[in-house]
Amino acid sequence: MDYNKIFAEIYTELEKIPDTGKIASYIPELGNVDPNKFGVHLTTTDNQDYSFGDANEKFSIQSIAKVLALILAYDLEGEKLWDRVGVEPSGTSFNSLVQLESDLGIPRNPFINAGALVISDVLVGHLKNPKTDFINFVRKVANDPTIDYSSRIADSEKSTGYRNAALANFMKSFNNIHNEIDVVLDFYFHMCSIEMTCKELSRTFLFMAKKGVNTHNNEAILSAAKSKRINSIMQLCGFYDEAGEFAFKVGLPGKSGVGGGIIAIYPGKYSIAVWSPKLNKKGNSSRGIKFLEMLTTEV
Amino acid sequence: MDYNKIFAEIYTELEKIPDTGKIASYIPELGNVDPNKFGVHLTTTDNQDYSFGDANEKFSIQSIAKVLALILAYDLEGEKLWDRVGVEPSGTSFNSLVQLESDLGIPRNPFINAGALVISDVLVGHLKNPKTDFINFVRKVANDPTIDYSSRIADSEKSTGYRNAALANFMKSFNNIHNEIDVVLDFYFHMCSIEMTCKELSRTFLFMAKKGVNTHNNEAILSAAKSKRINSIMQLCGFYDEAGEFAFKVGLPGKSGVGGGIIAIYPGKYSIAVWSPKLNKKGNSSRGIKFLEMLTTEV
Amino acid sequence: MDYNKIFAEIYTELEKIPDTGKIASYIPELGNVDPNKFGVHLTTTDNQDYSFGDANEKFSIQSIAKVLALILAYDLEGEKLWDRVGVEPSGTSFNSLVQLESDLGIPRNPFINAGALVISDVLVGHLKNPKTDFINFVRKVANDPTIDYSSRIADSEKSTGYRNAALANFMKSFNNIHNEIDVVLDFYFHMCSIEMTCKELSRTFLFMAKKGVNTHNNEAILSAAKSKRINSIMQLCGFYDEAGEFAFKVGLPGKSGVGGGIIAIYPGKYSIAVWSPKLNKKGNSSRGIKFLEMLTTEV
Amino acid sequence: MDYNKIFAEIYTELEKIPDTGKIASYIPELGNVDPNKFGVHLTTTDNQDYSFGDANEKFSIQSIAKVLALILAYDLEGEKLWDRVGVEPSGTSFNSLVQLESDLGIPRNPFINAGALVISDVLVGHLKNPKTDFINFVRKVANDPTIDYSSRIADSEKSTGYRNAALANFMKSFNNIHNEIDVVLDFYFHMCSIEMTCKELSRTFLFMAKKGVNTHNNEAILSAAKSKRINSIMQLCGFYDEAGEFAFKVGLPGKSGVGGGIIAIYPGKYSIAVWSPKLNKKGNSSRGIKFLEMLTTEV
Question: Which is deepest, B70, B144, C159, C196, by most CB within 10 Å?
Fold first, then answer.
């Protein structure tokens, strides 16, 4: 299929629709990005690449990294992981504390901030050098040793991360954070600071469209069964309280980040990364979601 | 694939696990069912049928009928329908009023009771003889003129349906119920009282595995695009606050009823109905879910 | 003390402050009242009367009647009453359903709508001719046989009372409404439709400043102990989620109604009724509260 | 009045009722107290003292100190204080985060933990040496230079204070904590660690029964108007979600601590301190409340 042509056609349509989204401003560094950036990269399971726009420009993947953290934590901890974090959609905002109180410190899923903090705690508990070991894992999956944290972004997050500190302290009061809070938060802020291009992102996640098998060396990053399960969690929880809307309109498992990036997986067919910094009211890339809706309606 | 053999094997395994579920007791009529009933029926998209256990015994399909009501309402009302009901998982119990208050009378999705009441209101508004017209629609889809309401069940629901009356009145206070409350409730209680066998249920829902096309006459009950969307809603909202767990373990769109029935759809492959009356704490058939988990892990 | 002079002085001050309140509009009949009406009547425990402004004009006392209903229900039911309704401030809006769900159908206090519906149910259960018997009780307390319901207001409430019907049905699902819902709602809507002047209101409630003793015949309407308790409930729950603000600024037990009336009690000294139809965001008479604040600061 | 005799009589009655309360266990130091301790001390506005039981034994006054912190903060900050903390009953548990989220970081009142943390932040902002200056203020009010923090208790609180750290971080994310979180928490934990005997406590709070005037030197600690307002806040918010129950049964402004202490004020008559370590489910001294209920019913 000529995705390049389709991308261009959709983008032409997209430009006719005013983008009412707003760029993330909760940390200064994210607010400095050009709001009109737009990039797409699709990689098919037989390794064909299709690019459009600013697909080779680095951006902050933010919460998309939570999927990689989850995969590593699931591998290290096994099914015990689900005693500490659920797999249910939250029905509330990504950084809400309300449910955490009635659920006694067990986050609904690994993608809301509370859940990703528990995942961070699991990794901090298992890894010898958590930040180094995690970025090495990401590099291995991405087959790209240059992928890295942005210390600018990590520092910026840390300086305003009171709500995440609240979540971590709250869960520690329920004994669901086991390590030092400062260490867990430092890991979490770094994890969310990883930068990739659309092309790197799409290629990194291709294994999720291939039942867990890494394309460049045919090694299994996770089993087919676990791969299916992670896709299910992405489908149900990947877009906070817009997950249903995304499933309804796009129908693919995926994950968004407040940097404006989205990764989506068509199992057996392709992975696709889209980047457009303006966010809708639910905190997801407004144009990114629209693009994927039009793409999946068309093909 | 020899599903008959697989069904028998799984059932043997299943019998070794104690069933801690409890039969629904909120209406007397449901409490009279033999809790040890167990039936399965699978219909492939090429019309092969596989049965096991009490697959030819009628039971109250309860909330499973909400999917058929949604399909008809979606067809009659079009995309305007989503102004009155969302497509997001609720994160709360099936009959909760909490979210309805903060969401100003718009139910999160069409499968929680509040949402199904809005769907009932839509149908009452569109249909000349709502109860007759709806059962005729079900009969047409099922290709079976004997499918019917159970007036026993409907009466039993009505006599204890104060919570549903609360939901309907509450939404009417937000102008999201347009017709007389008593008429809407009467329709709703009848809709939930339909009885089918596993075989009838599986065959009725086969079109959802075939992009909306009715097998027996090749007519489209709904478009491929709409069919995909309804499957998405089932996947995200079909099991109340256990939707994530079901997606995680089973991975198929589906819908449960408090009568102990479950319908699940494997798009392009098959529809399957399971019936086992004992419910887990979330109100879904405990053994039914376990059966589907084992089936989808195996094949 | 020359209250007449004080009233006039305060009113002069009050007129200098813009009244940003809005007249209640949820039922048409209340919307028809002249928003600039203002009346005050104070009755001392030694039967001195002080009037100001529109103190002899009838208005809809609305929720203020809930205090009289509570007093009669407390008398008829005794301490068992508190098994069905609490005495705690709700911390939420007057017609909220949220807490009712977590509190399993037990309203926080007798003055939020849910609580007053339970009180209505208690009265319907005890009284032979509930509406007649209740108005006769009010007339006896008021020492005025002309006090009556407004059928206009009652009808208007009924035609838009879906939220109260929701509350009643919801509580019946928890077995905390024992009688027919329609009968309870009809009683409730009538109870809220009583009309009085400021003078009648002040005189009716004087017994609450006199340890329960009715001034005109020295009969005890309720015991001193019970009188103290009802005053406590008024102090903590009389102004919905503005109770703390009222206690902080005014410091007297009291009760407001959406008709713009307020009754307040200075135990041992006086009862006072104020009427000004424009309501603040919490649903209490904006100018009425300000007047009482200035009065209690002054004297 | 012969309070000594009344105290003995009530205690005899009280001993006949089984005390189902449980000693606070959330910090080890509080769990070490003898659960059968019982002390009462009443001081009349004309400086008569009445003691009973363990009235001269030190205990941890815990949250009772929040009243003194509030008084000092109110004095230093003036009416601006109420922009940062409300005066409404919370309707929820003392350490709940739920309301804080919907109320955008403004605690409902100064006595729930969140509110007391804001008060601590205000004091840290105003005082040169916060901990020293505050204890000196308490000593001045108590007219007793030996009153002190317990570093054992403060350390014990700090080591398990994750929930309070969560609250402080959460409010800082809403800009309602202005100073360093660690400094604010350290102040808060010390403030809650003050130890007094019933006699000291009763005498310390006598000024609240005397319109703010300190008995031993006739200086005003706060104005009569402010004194009335603080009493109102105690009446509405002094016992968490049992405030209504306390007002209903006892009818006096008061404040409890999880150390089992209660201070109550009868304006114009007396202050009274009760100590009994076992707490009811709401976290208030079970026997202490019962004692005050019997006392205020009797006299």
Answer: C196
Q: Which residues of A touch D165 (CB under 8 A)?
A: 165-166, 169
Residues of B in contact with A108 (CB under 8 A): 91, 244
The CATH label, of 3.50.50.60, 3.40.710.10, 3.30.460.80, 3.60.21.10, for the domain at B3-298 is: 3.40.710.10
Q: Do D171 and A161 form a contact (C-beta atoms < 8 A)? A: no
DSSP single-letter state for residue A41: E
CB-CB contact of A286 with A280 (8 Å): yes
Instruction: Give the three-class secondary structure for A195.
Output: strand
Instruction: Count helices and strands (H / E) in chain D.
Output: 13, 9
SS (HEC) of C254-279: EEECCCCEEEEEECCCEEEEEECCEE
Is the four-CA dihedral C236, C242, C248, C254 of positive or negative sign?
negative
pLDDT in tens, A155-203: 988 888 999 999 999 999 999 999 999 999 999 999 999 999 999 999 9
Model confidence pLDDT, tens digit, residues B242-268: 889 999 999 999 999 999 999 999 999
Tell me which chain A residues have a C-beta less than 8 angstroms from the C-beta of D96: 101
Residue B9's CB is within 10 A of a number of other CB atoms, namely 12
> Among D201, D252, D295, D273, which residue's Cα sits nearest to residue D8?
D295
Task: Tell me which of B100, B121, B173, B184 to substitute to probe the interface with C (most C C-beta atoms closer than 10 Å).
Answer: B173
Return the structure tokens found at B147.
């499918």
Residue B194 to residue B141: CA distance in whole angstroms: 14
Count of CB atoms situated within 10 Å of the CB of B17: 11
Cβ <8 Å between D167 and A166: yes
The dihedral of CA D160, D166, D167, D173: what is its sign? Answer: positive
Helix (H) or strand (E) holding A165: helix A162-173
Contact A237 B243 (CB under 8 A): no
CA distances to A230, C150, C246, D55, D268 from D250, rounded to whole Å, are 57, 38, 20, 21, 16
For chain B, the residues whose C-beta falls within 8 A of a C-beta of chain A are 86-92, 99, 108-109, 225, 228-229, 232-233, 235-237, 241-245, 247-249, 251, 297
Which residue do the tokens 């309401």 mark? B149
Other Cβ atoms within 10 Å of D36 Cβ, number = 11
pLDDT range class, residue A80, cuts 50, 70, 90: very high
Whose tokens are 């400021």? That residue is C198
Record: contact D173-A163, CB cut-off 8 A: yes
CB contact under 8 A, B244 and A86: yes
CA distance C111 to C129: 23
**A93 to chain D nearest CA, in Å?**
11
Cβ–Cβ gap C88/D87 under 8 Å: no
Residue pair C239/C293 in contact by the 8 Å Cβ criterion: no
Residue where the block lists tokens 């509930």 = C130
Residue A299: predicted pLDDT = 60
E strands along C57-110, which residues? 59-60
How many Å lie between the alpha carbon of C69 and the closest alpha carbon of chain B? 24
Angle C284-C287-C293 from CA coordinates, rounded to 5°:
90
Helix extents (H) in chain D: 3-16, 28-31, 65-77, 98-102, 113-126, 130-142, 151-159, 162-173, 181-191, 198-204, 224-237, 243-249, 286-298
- For D236-278, write each residue's pLDDT tens digit: 999 988 888 999 999 999 999 999 999 999 999 999 999 999 9
ipTM: 0.91
From the CA of D139, how many Å to the nearest CA of chain A?
33
Please list, residue by residue across A171-190, b when 16 or more beta carbons sit within 10 angstroms of its beta carbon and e when fewer do: bbbeebbebebeebbbbbbb
